[in-house]
Every structure is written in structure tokens, then in C-alpha cells.
Sequence to fold (263 residues):
Amino acid sequence: MARRWENKGRSGVVFLALALAGAVVPANAPAGMLAPAPLSGKAAARHLPVTPVDGRYDRQPGLKAIRDKLVADQPVTTGELRVLANAGDGLAAYALAERYIESGRPELRADAAFYYAVAVARGRSYAINPLVDILMDGQTVIPQARLDNIERALLLQASQGDRDAVDVLSKFYLQGQPFGHRPDMAEALMKAGVSGSNDSALALRTALWLASKEPGDAAEIMEIRRFLAIALESPDLSVRTAAENLMRSYPDPGTAKAEDNDE
Fold:
């Protein structure tokens, strides 16, 4: 007798695995928001090695002078930071965003988000965490044009394999805020992220997402098992435990078919 792939009982396993993986919405998250997990240990900007001045400022002595001061940790005015940040300098953009946040003025938070995004687009992943804080604060109103720029910055980093950008952007797409509900984009980002890095935590989250779609055929189940196999190699016990629990709910279709034939 051919075995029908039943989803009975799997929803509970998926929820348990989500909880173990830290994907359940925390109590203090804003209503309707799925809080991205803490980012992967990026150091604070002041602890990162300073990027030397590059050649693109050689013909722009004014910008080069500002950046020289910034790199040398000399006083730089907010106006100077803004000029350099508007020229696309990621270090200046991050410093300007930090200055806006430190001012404590709520009306500057949208501007801070914009400049954090400039820093992200320039490869400064440590700007993602404070950017997400603003996007999720439930109070800052960011114009759509700037939201589009922020999304593009995160997409750029995600396309280059930045795990934090993949993690944050895929969660935002699944929750529908602030960039809209785009589950297909989220799934594509997660799959590409795992393929490029074998990230076990991301592999588990990808498997959980695929399982939530109630797969019905052997190919879909084998895809879930492929991601779970990566998650089972995690050094994190909670990730391995969640993967083991979910794997039991999705036995190998080939093995199951052979057992049915034996009957």
C-alpha cells in the first residue's frame, strides 16, 4: 500500500523547532513584527580595523582632507561628515548615523536609518544591527523612497553573501514589514545563503519555512531533509535538537516506499 504523506502532528513539531531556533516572536517585539535574531557577533565600529584612505579621493582634496581626519580620529564636524557621507563614504555615513542617534533627537532617526543604509551598501555589515533597531522601533516614519534605498542596500549585501543581510531581509519579507510580504524572495534568499555558506542555523530556518508550507511530494521532502542535514552539523545543541525533531517527521521517501512495498 502506497504511503500518503500526512502532515498530522507536524505542526506541533515545527512550532517546537521554531522555538528552539529562536524564531518565535519575543514578548517585547512591536505588534506584528518578527524580531530578527541578534546578528552574528559583529564588533562595534570602534573596535574594527580602520580602512585606509583609498585612491578615489586623490582628485578630491576637500573630501580627502575630511576622511583623513576621520581615519585619524580627529574632530570632524557634522557638516563635514554629511558631505563625505553624501559622496558615498561608508565610514562617514556610519559615523554620521551614530551622531544622529547619540543626539537623542527623534526627528533625526529616519536620517540615521538612511545613512546606516549607505554604510551597509558600502560593505559595513556592523551598520545592519542599528539600522534594524530603527526599522523596528514602531515610531520612526521613513519615507518610501528612503525605504526603497534601505531595501536595496540590504539586497546588495545579501547578494554578496552577507549572512546578517540575508537573515534580516528574509525575516522582513516573511513578516511583511517594512518592505512588503515577499515570501518567494525570502525563500530564495535563504536557499542561496545556505548554498553559499552551509550556515547551519540558516539551514534550519530554511527547512522550517519549507515545512510550514506543508510539503506533499517526495522532492519537497527531500529538499527539507537536505537543509536539515546541514543543520545537524551545527555546533549549537539547540539547532541540532530542532533539526533532529523535524527530521523524524520527514522520513526519507525512498526508504518509506521500500517499507511499504515490503508490506
Remarks:
- The chain has a mean pLDDT of 81.
- The radius of gyration is 22 Å.
- Residues 199-251 form one domain.
- DSSP finds 13 helices and no strands in the chain.
